[in-house]
UniProtKB/TrEMBL annotation:
<protein>
    <recommendedName>
        <fullName>DNA-directed RNA polymerase</fullName>
        <ecNumber>2.7.7.6</ecNumber>
    </recommendedName>
</protein>
<dbReference type="GO" id="GO:0034245">
    <property type="term" value="C:mitochondrial DNA-directed RNA polymerase complex"/>
</dbReference>
<dbReference type="InterPro" id="IPR002092">
    <property type="entry name" value="DNA-dir_Rpol_phage-type"/>
</dbReference>
<dbReference type="GO" id="GO:0001018">
    <property type="term" value="F:mitochondrial promoter sequence-specific DNA binding"/>
</dbReference>
<feature type="compositionally biased region" description="Acidic residues">
    <location>
        <begin position="215"/>
        <end position="225"/>
    </location>
</feature>
<keyword id="KW-0240">DNA-directed RNA polymerase</keyword>
<dbReference type="GO" id="GO:0003899">
    <property type="term" value="F:DNA-directed RNA polymerase activity"/>
</dbReference>
<feature type="compositionally biased region" description="Basic and acidic residues">
    <location>
        <begin position="226"/>
        <end position="236"/>
    </location>
</feature>
<feature type="region of interest" description="Disordered">
    <location>
        <begin position="207"/>
        <end position="236"/>
    </location>
</feature>
<keyword id="KW-0548">Nucleotidyltransferase</keyword>
<dbReference type="Pfam" id="PF00940">
    <property type="entry name" value="RNA_pol"/>
</dbReference>
<keyword id="KW-0804">Transcription</keyword>
<dbReference type="InterPro" id="IPR046950">
    <property type="entry name" value="DNA-dir_Rpol_C_phage-type"/>
</dbReference>
<keyword id="KW-0808">Transferase</keyword>
<dbReference type="InterPro" id="IPR043502">
    <property type="entry name" value="DNA/RNA_pol_sf"/>
</dbReference>
<feature type="domain" description="DNA-directed RNA polymerase C-terminal">
    <location>
        <begin position="5"/>
        <end position="281"/>
    </location>
</feature>
<dbReference type="GO" id="GO:0006390">
    <property type="term" value="P:mitochondrial transcription"/>
</dbReference>
Length: 281
């Protein structure tokens, strides 16, 4: 299952409103330790194939996407200033020009900001993701986490399944919408061989940590009662997870089908910032 997850991973990629493609570089780079007479040195090959770091990819995308919009605004401002013959320089989000041209540059900054953010930035991003990742599929077994399932449900994600499919998708019941005619579940890779299913179950059992106490040791049972309850709860949780894996293994849903709908656009009129004495002042 771990191999399956790794093989389906991809860096997060998007395109800015100016057409610049952005690829997040976060991967689990393998480092080698080199011992020298003076010190220990760690080296890595930046050109070697490396597994995507999914945690960093996910956590870094929101701020990086905003940074890409800020960079787009900077470039639009630079282009606007050039068209008006204004000198322009910048360091991050600090924009400079000659003192006599500050008011003119201020107008360019506001105009380009409004133009950028009045466009359907998020809608364009979603459409790009739908196109770019249309052939990417997510193993349903990776969604069988209570916390993740809850977040997907709250975001509006839904998985369509036939009544027959829904019977085996109980671990994801909150996300399932039963439909007679529509299904977003791909079952073409479901393990059907009984021996293979048994082997999968055995592998899952061997991966779990087992703790046991002697039934004859009543004193030990009494003294460790609290821990025994914890162990029992952990065992039941592991059993539920194994059952979920067996039901969901080999079933997939496309990224496009799982992407949640966009939230309703707010009512704030971004053009109002043109009258603000504080915006980019």
């Amino acid at each position: 299952m771990e191999v399956l997850r790794k093989s389906l991973m991809s860096s997060v990629i998007w395109t800015t409103p100016l057409g610049l493609p952005i690829v997040q570089p976060y991967r689990k780079t393998v480092r080698k330790q080199i011992m020298t007479a003076l010190q220990t040195v760690y080296i890595s090959d930046p050109n070697s194939m490396a597994e995507v770091n999914s945690v960093k990819q996910a956590s870094a995308f929101p701020p990086n996407f905003i940074h890409s919009l800020d960079a787009t605004h900077m470039m639009l401002t630079a282009i606007g200033c050039r068209k008006q013959g204004l000198t322009f320089a910048s360091v991050h989000d600090s924009y400079w020009t000659h003192a006599a041209d500050i008011d003119a540059m201020s107008a360019v900054i506001r105009d380009t900001f409004v133009k950028l953010h009045e466009s359907n930035v998020l809608e364009e991003l979603r459409l790009e993701f739908m196109t770019r990742y249309k052939d990417y599929q997510i193993p349903l077994v990776t969604l069988a986490s209570g916390n993740l399932t809850k977040k997907l449900y709250e975001a509006g994600s839904r998985i369509y399944a036939t009544p027959e499919q829904a019977k085996s998708l109980a671990p994801l019941k909150d996300l399932i919408v039963v439909s007679e005619n529509t299904s977003s579940v791909d079952e073409s890779q479901v393990v059907k061989d009984p021996n293979a299913v048994k082997q999968l179950a055995d592998d899952l059992n061997s991966m779990s940590t087992k703790k046991s106490f002697s039934e004859d040791d009543e004193d030990g049972e009494f003294e460790m009662e609290g821990e025994t309850r914890q162990a029992r709860a952990a065992r039941e949780r592991k059993e539920a997870e194994r059952e979920a894996v067996l039901k969901l293994y080999g079933k997939f849903v496309s990224v496009g089908a799982l992407l949640p709908p966009l939230p309703k656009k707010g009512e704030f009129e971004v053009s109002k910032i043109k009258a603000s004495p504080y915006f980019f002042s």
